[in-house]
Amino acid sequence: MASGLREVAETFSTLAKGFSVTFRNIFRKTVTENYPYEKVHFQARYRGIHVLHRDENGLEKCVGCFLCAAACPANCIYIEAAENTDVNRISAGERYASVYNIDYSRCIFCGYCVEACPTDAITHGHGFELATYDINSLVYRKEQLLEKTPAPETTAAR
Fold this sequence. Notes:
By secondary structure, the chain is of the alpha+beta class. It has helices at residues 2-26, 67-71, 112-116, 142-145; strands at 50-52, 77-83, 95-103, 122-124, 139-140. The strands form two sheets. It has a three-stranded antiparallel sheet. The protein has a two-stranded antiparallel ribbon with strand order 1-4. The relative contact order is 0.18.
């Protein structure tokens, strides 16, 4: 009989603890974000859609070394490298990535590609809108990942 009473007491004690958490938080201000109408607030470590960067001269930082593709556990990065020429210089190195595709239907956003890149050419951005009805549109090409060319600075003529 004593064990039955102790079990009932433990049950009520557990219920009281659970309800205390509920009642403590019920009157607090909500933390809901009003997404499409307000800007989303990201943490600094958020891993979103990848971004391929350019250097200060506007050239691509990616030199087509394939280290990011080799480090990817999901095998979702596909690269084809080509040689730079003096006439048509794409990157500062000898080679550049002529094709750079990431299949986001396979990507697990682990960050290994970012860590493996010796030129800091690829990082995680803050893009998060990947929803689609067509799985083929989840393959992002180099043009979609590459950051925009910085606008040339204009100086006012006197």
